[in-house]
Amino acid sequence: MRRTKIVATIGPATATPNALRRLLEAGVDVVRLNAAHSDMKTHSNNARLVRELASELGRSVGILVDMPGPKIRSGLVANDEVELESGQEFVLSGLEDSIGDAQHVSTTLPDLAQWARPGDEVYLADGAIVLRVLESIGKDVRTEVLRGGPLRSRKGMHLPRAEAHVEPFTARDALALEMAIAAKVDFLGLSFVRRAEDVERVRAMLPKRGMRPALVPKIETAAAIDNLAGIIEAADAVMVARGDLGIQMPARRVPLLQKEIIRACNMAGKPVITATQMLESMTRSPLTHPRRSQ
């Protein structure tokens, strides 16, 4: 029996009966449903389809629902896309109702200016664009663009210092949890976990009787690294979120941290999942630091 298992994320292209059947026949052990995308009815239907196909194939296949978690985003931009040039100045605003352009954009974090410090790096477009904080003025943060690129409306934004103040469990997480329990899935991937208490909070929401999904906190923040031992103890399994860790800290640290997390989980007797980046995104957006890629 293989000790290493395959966890595969399915989306619109692989959620058909034929495509899913081929994935299971190829050796997929756990099917991951990403609740950050699509609607809960679609995920529920996909979970049922996985169960039916696994039964037909005589296989035991797990289902993991990955909770969406909070997401800090930049706001709307004119014509849905603007181009930022390396070396230019760019302003992040705490006011959500303004339309962004090549000089500024709003954010979903109204208190951004309180937590940004000169020299901090801010990542826009899910890490593709890198800014360096120059100063905070009122609710605005003035930055310099270190690595430019196209910025579209409502894309993911990261500022590690600010993320410690974000509530990890959202209303959409509550909907995903309800769906996952009803579908009797095997695993719950917990997003934005920073301490053991974040895991225990979700565990307290699980039903007292019947099937209870195993909790799999994702190690994706610097705070989670600081509190790793407690998180592993509270977890049923752990996921190493390599892509997110590469934004939260220098990418060169990620391979070593991955090994340390896996070793700690092995010592604790807890299963551990290493999440890879999609190969196509690695060719288009390798997320190398602008000063280190030269």
TrEMBL record:
EC number: 2.7.1.40
Pathway the protein takes part in: Carbohydrate degradation; glycolysis; pyruvate from D-glyceraldehyde 3-phosphate: step 5/5
Annotated InterPro entries: Pyr_Knase, Pyrv/PenolPyrv_kinase-like_dom, Pyrv_kinase-like_dom_sf, Pyrv_Knase-like_insert_dom_sf, Pyrv_Knase_brl, Pyrv_Knase_insert_dom_sf
GO MF annotations, alphabetized: kinase activity; pyruvate kinase activity
Keywords: ATP-binding, Glycolysis, Kinase, Magnesium, Metal-binding, Nucleotide-binding, Pyruvate, Transferase
Domain Pyruvate kinase barrel stretches: 1-287
UniProt keyword tRNA processing present: no
Catalytic reactions of this protein: pyruvate + ATP = phosphoenolpyruvate + ADP + H(+)
Entries under SUPFAM superfamilies matching the protein: Phosphoenolpyruvate/pyruvate domain, PK beta-barrel domain-like
Family classification: Belongs to the pyruvate kinase family.
This protein's name: Pyruvate kinase
